[in-house]
Amino acid sequence: TEAEKRPERLTIVVGGAGFTGIEFLGELGNRIPELCREYDIDRQQVRLICVEAAPSVLPGFDPELVDYAVNYLEGKGVEFKIGTAVKECTPDGIICGKDDQTEEIKAGTVVWAAGVRGNPIIEESGFENMRGRVKVKPDLRVEGHDDIFVIGDCSLIINEETERPYPPTAQISMQQGETCANNLAALIHGKE
């Protein structure tokens, strides 16, 4: 069909260069050569484009690891547009841009892996927060509120080594769940 002949059908845009977007691009970058062989598609026709509004890839991660990940993915053919927001998804792809400059990227597939933020109720709670995430102490309690714990995507914990927030990942949320349970049990038993 005519649609199958359009070159942009083999363009995949991933919105977001956080943990989820980068992990997805890594898997896709590894799998694309196999799929191209299997379906007799010229690898040069396939484009993988990552669009990220933030000024860097993998916020919260060590800069050395970020450089490694970017170089690895670029070696797999991933193109990066950093500091560039997805302004609109269209039936033909996306419109993205910086400041008042926009660009249309025609794509057969758009994957949204951006915008992790806490529950909107957090923003209305009165707690100091950043994008719906409340800064908590290492024991997961809110500063000045010893009876309130915040965990998961709603919590903001600073990594003391990097002085940057830990990313909101499932792995960290699971660790926080265990830590919070232990801390609550200790409080119930009168321990700090």
Automatic annotation (TrEMBL):
Annotated EC: 1.6.5.9
Keyword line: FAD, Flavoprotein, NAD, Oxidoreductase
MF-aspect GO terms: NADH dehydrogenase (quinone) (non-electrogenic) activity
Record bears the keyword Flavoprotein: yes
Pfam families, A to Z: Pyr_redox_2
Domain (FAD/NAD(P)-binding) ranges: 4-177
The UniProt record lists the keyword Cytoplasm: no
Reactions catalysed, as given in the entry: a quinone + NADH + H(+) = a quinol + NAD(+)
InterPro entries in alphabetical order: FAD/NAD-bd_sf (IPR036188), FAD/NAD-binding_dom (IPR023753), NDH-2 (IPR045024)
Broad enzyme group: oxidoreductase
Similarity annotation: Belongs to the NADH dehydrogenase family.
Protein name: NADH:ubiquinone reductase (non-electrogenic)
Species in which this protein is naturally found: Bacillus paralicheniformis
